[in-house]
Amino acid sequence: MFFFFVGGLEQQAKQVLKSGVGRCISCGSPADLVEYEKVLKAFFVPVWRWPGKEPLMHCKDCNLFFPQSIAPPPRLPEKESVEAALRCHFCSRQVDASFRFCPFCGSGL
Ligand SMILES: [Zn+2]
Ligand SMILES: [Zn+2]
């Protein structure tokens, strides 16, 4: 049987799950975690579509899909690291932030 096939398999972003969770491996712009579906097109008309198995990263700029595991993490805005635990000014040991006095040296926090 001769089967002349014009078309192809395309991946399309179906739904954005999380936006800006990674960076594009190609252009470095923010990439979204998306649910995608595969669309089989024949003569440029979608004839069949089925959902992708795993969410993928999708770059809107270069329309690239790639697995989340190889996506570099997004550049996080520099935040002052807020330490959960307080340190005593005198003995510099870690003290629970709810304590009013250092349990090690007794100085006020
Ligand atoms: Zn890109
Ligand atoms: Zn102390």
Provide a descriptive summary of the structure in words:
The protein has 109 residues and is mostly beta strands. The protein is built from no helices and seven strands. The protein has strands spanning 7-23, 30-42, 45-51, 56-59, 64-66, 86-87, 94-95. Strands 1, 2, 3, 4 and 5 form a five-stranded antiparallel beta sheet that branches. Strands 6-7 form a two-stranded antiparallel sheet. It binds zinc ion (2 copies). One zinc ion binds next to loops.
Q: How are the SSEs placed, and which strands pair?
A:
Blueprint: E1 7-23, E2 30-42, E3 45-51, E4 56-59, E5 64-66, E6 86-87, E7 94-95
Antiparallel strand pairs: 1-2, 2-3, 2-4, 4-5, 6-7
The protein binds zinc ion (ZN) (2 copies).
One zinc ion binds next to loops.
How many distinct helices?
0
- Let me know the number of strands: 7
Separation of termini? 84 Å
Estimated share of beta-strand residues? 35-45%
pLDDT average, as an integer?
85
Main sheet, how many strands, which sense, barrel? 5 strands, antiparallel
Order of helices and strands: EEEEEEE
Low-confidence stretches: none
In total, the number of domains comes to 2
Derived from helix and strand composition plus strand pairing, the structural class reads mainly beta
Rg, alpha carbons:
26 Å
Shape: rod-shaped
In helices, the fraction of residues equals under 10%
Bound heterogens, unique:
zinc ion
